[in-house]
Amino acid sequence: MNLSTYMMANDLRSKYNFSYWDSLIVASALESGCEVLYTEDMQDGQVIEDRLRIVNPLSKRRGRKENGGIFKKRDRAFA
Known about the structure:
This protein is an alpha+beta fold. It contains two helices and five strands. The chain has helices at 3-16, 20-31; strands at 36-38, 47-48, 52-55, 71-73, 76-78. Helix 1 packs across helix 2.
């Protein structure tokens, strides 16, 4: 983690009312260029900063194909 990640996380925490740890995860995903963040701890379908979509992989309305990894960066999923 670097200072810019921390500062972005702090802004995201205020803007979206995230917990400290969730804001760090989201800031890291944004800085890494991720487009999708798979998590069961945030609001399914929420779009952060018009760049990152939150997906709950355990949601009943999701198909099994989408239940991949934690971060998805373009065409690759990282577990």
